[in-house]
Amino acid sequence: xxxxxxxxxxxxxxxxxxxxxxxxxxxxxxxxxxxxxxxxxxxxxxxxxxxxxxxxxxxxxxxxxxxxxxxxxxxxxxxxxxxxxxxxxxxxxxxxxxxxxxxxxxxxxxxxxxxxxxxxxxxxxxxxxxxxxx
Length: 134
Known about the structure:
Layout: H1 3-7, E1 10-16, E2 19-27, E3 32-34, E4 37-38, H2 39-42, H3 46-58, E5 65-72, H4 76-94, H5 99-102
Parallel strand pairs: 3-5
Antiparallel strand pairs: 1-2, 2-5, 3-4
InterPro entries: Ribosomal_Su5_D2-typ_SF, Ribosomal_uS9, Ribosomal_uS9_bac/plastid, Ribosomal_uS9_CS, Ribsml_uS5_D2-typ_fold_subgr
Protein name: Small ribosomal subunit protein uS9
Region (Disordered): 1-21, 103-134
């Protein structure tokens, strides 16, 4: 990689359910900011934090990049999944060789599961009103 490409911030987008995360990654000391708030404040539990850091741990690049994240929609779990997806994409944009490590772990795959819409004439997506034979 050239020196100019390494200093340039890498941007990527990740999605899960209705959450969309935009990540700007640049080389630094490992500072993560999500929607203008510190990483530990925005994602208060350890499982959520480790989900976001998992691509860095797999690639052995922990505390090497600064992240500026903007995330919208969904809940905290969905947002953590979207951030993880975006981080993995940004890492492959930084170094395409990392794809070999991240792809088998499933970090580059968008989770397609969504909430199913409510259908007309029914109380929910799949539930039916009570059937009475007589």
